[in-house]
Amino acid sequence: MTTTPTPTQATRRGRPGYDRQTLVDLCVKVFNRHGYEATSMGMLATELGISKSAIYHHVKTKEEILQSALDDALDGLEAVTEQAEHTAGPARDKIEALIKGAVKVLVNRQHSVTLLLRLRGNSEVETKALLRRRDLTTRLASLIADAQAEGSVRETTSPKVLARLIYGTVNSLVDWYSPEKSAGAEQTGDVLVDLIFQGIEQD
Q1: Inter-axis angle of helices 62-85 and 110-117, nearest 10
Q2: Does 1.10.10.60 match the CATH number of domain 7-60?
Q3: For this UniProt entry, which residues form the secretion signal (predicted)?
Q4: Which of 26, 58, 81, 107 could bond to 185 as cystine, CB 3.0-4.6 Å?
Q5: pTM for the predicted model, two decimal places
């Protein structure tokens, strides 16, 4: 008698059990738990409960998964930076828009942003991602310099240092933000804007 394999059995024989985006998202969570370098394709297969061939159905290499995750994080951050730069009004308003936008990206793409923040530049993919991340800091620093020139941000600290401090504050969300226990992205962004500007506003 011929039996029909169960979904689990079919998956274990190598048939893809996830669509590509879901696969990437789950792999990124594994990278964040164990470290990208320490995670092998075999470990990913075990953690996801599928065969390695099921993973290779969607991606060719582990680095392709990394590239997809980093693009997800950086594309989002670059988009909100672009929007902030074109926000009408003074530079202070642009900085506020950028902070709130960055918070939304982090909340909505927390796992891929977490992976981005843990990079060490150990490959060409990582090095290029770090360069894109530094460019974001440079663009924020430019807005801060404009705000200093208009008198809305104190000039006692360089724009680059302030930009790093602001991103450091926003990026700290990856260590404690929980969708189930924390306020939503909009409220969290409002709180961070208030706290940050209390520290950098011109008296």
Answers
A1: 100
A2: yes
A3: none
A4: 107
A5: 0.85
